[in-house]
Amino acid sequence: AASSNTEILGISDPTTLASVLADGVKKTVSDSRVDVTYEPGFVPAAPPAMPNIPPEHLAAMIKDTVKVEILDGDIGYLKIQHIIGEEMAQKVGPLLLEYIWDKVLPTSGMILDFRNAVSGETSGIPYIVSYYTDPEPLIHIDSVYDRTSDLTIELWSMPTLLGKRYGTSKPLIILTSKDTLGVAEDVAYCLKHLKRATIVGEKTAGGTMKMAKIKVGDTDFYVSVPVAKSINPITGKSWEITGVSPDVEVAAEDALDAAIAIIKLRT
After folding, report:
1. What is the rounded average pLDDT of the residues 173-188?
2. CA 93/CA 87 separation, integer angstroms
3. Structural domain includes residue 22
4. Which residues form the Tail specific protease domain (predicted)?
5. What is the pLDDT of residue 174?
6. How many CB atoms sit inside 10 A of residue 100's CB?
7. Which end of the chain has the lower number of beta carbons within 10 A, N or C?
8. Does 32 map to a domain?
9. What pTM, to 2 d.p., does this model score?
10. Residues near 180 by beta carbon (within 8 Å), at least 6 away in sequence
11. Residue 33: inside a domain
């Protein structure tokens, strides 16, 4: 379509051209996640290796992305910005238990604040979900199809965990916003449809599990596309593109107050 449009071909500024192409592609495929950019000198980022630093230093770094509080009414509050993966969790698990989990474990209700959670590792999903479910029977949490490898990975709850589970009887509320993105959306969607958590806040961004940036020919233009898809075994659908709809819809800035009121009512 662009090659036959002389007006588009006449755009001399590459950044403007990328913006016009991005707008056209998003409308054509009805997917807001797809993007076209002009990035001269772009160097693909290598997958981050596990830092070779002491576990206590790693734990300190993670503490910077997790805020823990005990609110009035004996309510545990965890604000999470990044969901760590399996490798990191195994390395710093005992310290995370001491600094974070053991503080909120005895509470009568819990709030997970994902309103600013925009990154995470897929391997961290079973960890979080398992702490709020029973050890048996095992639960098929999610299936993730990776187009680059043409493989589907099934995510299951874990029979054993480091530390104690929060269990299935105490209230659990997840706060969301229009900025909640990716892996955090998956956790919220899974716990919602397992009927283990109540989602309070705004509909989430409708992101993806994994993005790839593909170079367009011998140019400095790149197309960013989703290359993995989440398929929930309960709904047979995905939260991607459409986002996770809250059970109780309120403005993001009012979500915490609403969650506290709901937990106090239930307890």
Report:
1. 96
2. 10
3. no
4. 54-251
5. 98
6. 19
7. N
8. no
9. 0.88
10. 114, 115, 116, 117, 118, 188, 201, 204, 205, 244
11. no
- Torsional sign, CA 176, 179, 182, 183: negative
Look up the domain containing 99 and give its range.
Answer: 53-209+226-266
End-to-end CA distance of the chain: 59
- Give the Å distances, CA to CA, from 60 to 119, 163, 187, 196: 18, 19, 24, 30
Provide φ and ψ at 208, rounded to 5°: -150, 165
Distance between CA atoms of 225 and 208, rounded to whole angstroms? 9
User: φ, ψ for residue 25 (rounded to 5)?
Assistant: -65, -45
Taking only the tens place, the pLDDT of each residue in 54-94 is: 766 766 777 677 889 999 999 999 999 989 888 888 877 78
Q: Compute the distance between CA of residue 245 and CA of residue 266 in angstroms, rounded to an integer.
A: 22
> Phi and psi (nearest 5°) for 190?
-65, -50
Query: Encoding tokens for residue 49?
Result: 């290796």
Question: How far is 165 from 62, CA to CA, in rounded Å?
Answer: 20
Give residues with Cβ within 8 angstroms of 243, minimum separation 6. 178, 185, 203, 204, 205, 206
Residue 255's alpha-carbon distances to 14, 158, 171, 249, in angstroms, are 42, 30, 15, 8
